[in-house]
Specification:
alpha+beta, Serine Threonine Protein Phosphatase 5, Tetratricopeptide repeat, 19 helices, about 25% helix, transcription, WD40_repeat_dom_sf, TFIID_NTD2_sf, nucleus
């Protein structure tokens, strides 16, 4: 359609996207400069066609919901990705920056909201909605569960339409009549909605802008969809049909409709379910090959174990520890897919220690549960807000609401700083114990306090080599501290709002942070600007985790979704929906295949990363889950919660004989076992201490931490 083409070309020209304009001209063989006249607004919603609204020149606006194909223009864009692809699809320039759609670099709220222009008679809205409700409630059971998913998004859009067009009394009565019918997990959203009663309120509310600009995704079987479509067309219920077409993305699949509990397991996020397309990309979830290096095993360290006079066990001699490296995992990323730091000698020594400890590791299982050692922070009147423990369990750090970071040694070895420069110059650098000599005994203490942040510290993370410590704070910065000098080395400024979490890569050097500005950032310790920005969440990024192979990052958000991002190109490769509240904890299984997530809804959900599927749900906690950790060999999953308990779950059983056939993957027909009690191996209460961190030592002793609360 020539008119549409001209409109698109005008839009590209106005947005200064000359390259895209040229490509489109060549494709469409429109060579002359025939872009005259004001073209009327054109919006199409057939898949694969860019729905772009052109506006008369002079009104520098574009409609917020134009994008490629049926999705809205809200695909997160990796750093350095091209603005437009050289095919006939066009990505619109209203790129999404922190929630609002930016048109010509200016988040133009009115453009986004103007989609709610006057449509339909305000007095009939209740009738339309109750008519649809009656139709759905009277439809067959198999369709009812699926079609009931429409209630919430339609309710919100109809209410916002009434408010936007200043029918305040109608909006109020519409809200009061139908808000009770919505699912319980939307209560918090409805509370926000009920406070929006005037058009002016909508301007500053980011949640509502998100609801407007990102299409709400529903997954419905073809039969149910045909039923709905027929009903709306017979009734000539254009009001609702318009909303369905404009603001909802219906992901239609062939096959049996899903049951109520199958749907309930997957819905509940701010933007509905994930599209099936979103979880199709290939993910290299395997582990990288361990480097090989020769280390003769010495026998001295065996002596200490036999004080009780037991006869010494004969161990088969190994020629070298490094030879344990297996064949390359078929699901692993290429070794050089992302540049990883070289191993230093100290890292190799640490790996050897790690392997020796691993040889003495306790094999856990339902018959052999770990002992749990609980570190209670007493009199933490400063307010404990974050905890981390080093991989070798020698140090523990607490981040506090009084903006301090406190590091403790939990072994008899005290924390010491390096000597001053003048003293260091006197040391013989060739001596064998030079690393001991550079430490200043006068500074030895069990606790070091690090000052520098100007707000509560919400996240802390030790580097794998224990030389550095990260902390992130409400002040919008991430700080890197030296554990040699106990001073701050760098302050990374990129987030303009509180940073809720930060974590070092398992290989060091890289780290990730996530915050209130809804994006996660990937950093390297020697760059003061982020290397990647992962944008796509519709609310705060509340927790961040590196995959064991460091090629991927998982982020949990207050939009109740978990996303998996590819470090290489910044793309979002998985979106997991199913939690009914903000996500507060993430843990990858040691083999890299599975992800466990915990949220304010008190449920732990288990995901198969390769297939992009939910494979389990662990119910038992009664409050937010702030800590999740797999044991070193992945047999047990430990979860810690604000309900003052640590629970241990049988991870082997949870992940065995999974139904991950193609059918399940294609439709999302997941069958979770009715109760997860047979996976629960134990529940351990504290007196009155919420659990904020869990850590398995190299020998599988479980360490837990939290601050005593004297309610």
């Amino acid at each position: 359609d020539r008119q549409t083409l001209v409109a698109v070309l005008q839009f590209l020209r106005r947005s200064n996207l000359r390259e895209s304009e040229e490509i489109l001209r060549r494709e469409a063989r429109l060579l002359g400069d025939d872009l005259g006249g004001n073209v009327a607004t054109v919006a199409t919603s057939s898949p694969g066609v860019a729905a772009v609204a052109a506006v008369p020149p002079g009104k520098g606006e574009a409609r917020g919901d134009c994008g490629v194909g049926p999705s809205s223009g809200r695909e997160p864009r990796g750093v350095g990705s091209p603005v437009s692809s050289p095919s006939s699809k066009i990505t619109h320039s209203g790129d999404v920056i922190g929630g609002a759609v930016a048109v010509e670099d200016q988040p133009d709220v009115s453009a986004v909201l103007s989609a709610y222009n006057q449509q339909g008679d305000p007095t009939l809205y209740e009738e339309y909605y109750s008519g649809l409700k009656h139709f759905i409630e009277c439809s067959l059971d198999c369709h009812r569960a699926e079609l009931s998913q429409l209630f919430y998004p339609l309710f919100v859009h109809m209410y916002l339409e009434l408010v936007y067009n200043q029918h305040e009394s109608e909006a109020k009565s519409f809200f009061e009549r139908f808000h009770g019918d919505q699912e319980c997990y939307y209560q918090d959203d409805l509370r926000v909605l009920s406070s929006l009663t005037k058009k002016e309120h909508m301007k500053g509310n980011e949640t509502m802008l998100d609801f407007r600009t990102s299409k709400f995704v529903l997954r419905i079987s073809r039969d149910s969809y045909q039923l709905l479509k027929r009903h709306l067309q017979e009734k000539q219920n254009n009001q609702i049909w318009n909303i369905v077409q404009e603001h909802l993305y219906i992901d239609i699949f062939d096959g049996m409709p899903r049951s109520k509990q199958q749907i309930d397991a997957m819905v509940g996020s701010l933007a509905g379910e994930a599209k099936r397309e979103a979880n199709k990309a290939k993910v290299f979830f395997g582990l990288l090959k361990e480097p090989e290096f020769d280390v003769p095993l010495d026998d001295e360290d065996e002596e200490g174990e036999n004080e009780e006079g037991k006869p010494k066990k004969k161990k088969p001699k190994k020629d070298n520890v490094g030879s344990k490296s297996k064949k390359q995992d078929p699901n692993a990323p290429p070794q050089n897919r992302i540049p990883l730091p070289e191993l230093k000698d100290s890292d190799k020594l640490d790996k050897v220690m790690n392997m020796k400890e691993a040889a003495r590791r306790v094999r856990l299982g339902p018959e052999c549960l770990p002992s749990i050692c609980f570190y209670t922070f007493l009199n933490a009147y400063q307010g404990l807000t974050a905890v981390d423990i080093t991989d070798d369990s020698s140090m523990i750090v607490g981040g506090f609401a009084d903006s301090t970071v406190r590091v403790w040694s939990v072994t008899p070895k005290k924390l010491r700083s390096v000597k001053t420069a003048a003293d260091l110059s006197l040391i013989d650098k060739e001596s064998d114990d030079v690393l001991e000599r550079i430490m200043d005994e006068k500074t030895a203490s069990e606790l070091k306090i690090l000052y520098g942040h100007s707000g509560p510290v919400y996240g802390t993370s030790f580097s794998p080599d224990r030389n550095y410590l990260l902390s992130c704070s409400e002040d919008g910065t991430v700080r890197l501290w030296s554990l040699q000098t106990f001073t701050c080395l760098v302050g990374y400024k990129g987030h303009n709002y509180p940073v809720w979490d930060t974590q070092f890569s398992p290989y060091g050097y890289y780290f990730v942070s996530g915050g209130h500005d809804r994006v996660a950032r990937l950093w390297a310790t020697d760059h003061y600007q982020p290397l990647r920005i992962f944008a796509g969440h519709l609310a705060d990024v509340t927790c961040t985790r590196f995959h064991p192979n460091s090629n991927y990052i998982a982020t949990g958000s207050a939009d109740r979704t978990i996303r998996l991002w590819d470090v290489l190109n910044g793309n979002c490769v998985r979106i997991f929906t199913g939690h009914k509240g903000p996500i507060h904890s993430l843990a990858f299984s040691p083999n890299g295949r599975f992800l466990a997530t915990g949220a304010t809804d008190g449920r732990v959900l288990l995901w198969d990363i390769g297939h992009g599927l939910m494979v389990g749900e662990l119910k038992g906690h009664t409050d937010t889950i702030y800590a999740l950790r797999f044991s070193r060999d992945g047999e047990i999953l430990a979860s810690g919660s604000m309900d003052n308990t640590v629970r241990l779950w049988d991870a082997v059983k949870a992940f065995e004989d999974l139904e991950t056939d193609d059918f399940t993957t294609a439709t999302g027909h997941i069958n979770l076992p009715e109760n997860s009690q047979d996976l629960l191996l134990g529940t351990y209460m504290t007196k009155s201490t919420p659990v904020v961190h869990l850590h398995f030592t190299r020998r599988n002793l479980l360490l837990a931490a939290g601050a005593y609360s004297s309610q």
